[in-house]
Amino acid sequence: MSTGFFYDERCFWHGSGNYAGLLPVGGLVQPSETAGLPESPETKRRLVNLLRVTGLAHDLAMQGAEVATRADLDRVHPAAYLDEFQRLSDDKGGELGRRTPFGPGGFEIAALSAGLSKAALASVLKGDHKNAYALARPPGHHCLPDYPNGFCLLNNIAIAIEAAKAAGLAQRFAVLDWDVHHGNGTEAIFYDRDDVLTVSIHQDRNYPMDTGAFADRGEGAGLGGNLNIPLPPGAGHKGYLEAMEKLALPEIRAFQPDVLIIACGFDAGANDPLGRMLATQETFAAMSDQVMALADEVCGGRLMMSHEGGYSENYVPFCGHAVLQRMSGSAIHVADPFDGVFELRQPDTAFDAYLTTVLDGYAAALESEDR
Ligand code: ZN
Asked: From ligand 1's centre to the CA of 31, what distance in Å?
């Protein structure tokens, strides 16, 4: 069976507003001639281009998807929020929440992005593909039901999960978020639910600065159904794989989901402007191997990844290529274009020893929980 790759050129047309980097233009902030917000189409378009140039695209089932319906969006977001988003989108575009600008027609593009995630998840659950990747843009993991933030206007993964549930395709879902930022939106949506496990590995207090604490384990029926693994800035290849092995993978294994969903950000990459981590192309390949092996073990290999952040134009495509090479089992590899530079910049043994202490502390705290 093939790997599904769901994308649509129109998602690259989503506008990213009048920003210079993360700063709104005005006062002493000089307007940007080129980029606007860091969340630009370029990282994603270049990933598609690289897949085509190397030929890996031929080993994937490349396809589009239907726009998510209003009924799909209604399962996650309140009507008042969706109505206001639609109204502004039908007019001149605008901005809702925090750093979530959009142009005219932005509502339909966001719904298309959610539609890519929905279709990718459904395709895996129906057995059309062994696994699938949704190149969703705008991203989704920061978006709360009624409060978009961090470039995210609709929570793509939550919409995909609720659509799959409504269609009777699956009952239990595990979401592992390895974007460098905390998956606060997905956490909030499922915080009191016992049918969706949310796990987030992120740089401690990067964004948002007031969420993502290890102590936040869920509430009510969802108590124990959320796990945050905040890492100190500077964590690299070894630290990421260790966090996966010691914490994320055992938590998912214990939950026994019907399908494993990855909120796949590439902003833990070593030269990302919005992260301070040292993950490499090999880190993303190795984490892909880890989650594929776990999916084989617990849920018949059913694995879906939905694209989140990642702002290095020159590195995201190579990291994404490695993930898709692993998912598909294609023979088409590309070497890390930085040729070992990021390997040389990995943390020293003292840092890694400190990180091991941090992770062992988390593991001990989980062990001592009254479950
Ligand atoms: Zn991010």
From this structure: 23
Over residues 193-213, the mean pLDDT reads: 98
Alpha-carbon distance of 280 to 126, in angstroms, equals 33
User: What residues are annotated to the active site?
Assistant: 142
pLDDT at 371 (0 to 100):
60
Lowest mean pLDDT among 84-88, 93-97, 184-188: 93-97
pLDDT at 31: 79
Q: Structural domain boundaries of the chain?
A: 3-370
CA of 180 to the centre of ligand 1 (A): 5
Q: Tell me the pLDDT band of 35, cut-offs 50, 70 and 90.
A: low
Cα separation, 90 vs 104, whole angstroms: 6
Query: In this structure, which CATH number among 3.40.800.20, 3.20.20.480, 2.30.29.30, 3.40.50.970 belongs to the domain 3-370?
Result: 3.40.800.20
Single out the residue of 130, 239, 145 nearest to residue 186, CA to CA.
145
Residue 18: predicted pLDDT: 80
Question: Ligand 1 centre from 1 Cα, in Å?
Answer: 31
